[in-house]
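During the no-cost extension, the postdoctoral fellow (Dr. R.K.) reprocessed legacy sequence entries with the updated structure-token encoder. One reprocessed record is reproduced below for audit purposes.
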Amino acid sequence: MEMIHVVFANDGSVRKISGCPEGLTPQGWFNFLSRNTRDRYESLSGGRGVFRFEPEELLRVSGEAAGSRA
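Re-encoded structure tokens follow.
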């Protein structure tokens, strides 16, 4: 299982997120993952969260996100 870790600011915006494709903002990457995946996100305490993917699914999603910037 591959994980994308998210850290939120007090206002709910994304402060940090792992695996962010080049050219996307942290908030843009979070928005893309939220809109284009199902049952992958888990809220954690302390203003954090995690997306869980199979490795090949994460590669596919990352490629789609990179292509969506064009």
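Strands lie at 2-8, 14-17, 41-44, 48-53. The mean pLDDT is 94. The remaining legacy entries will be reprocessed before the final report is submitted.
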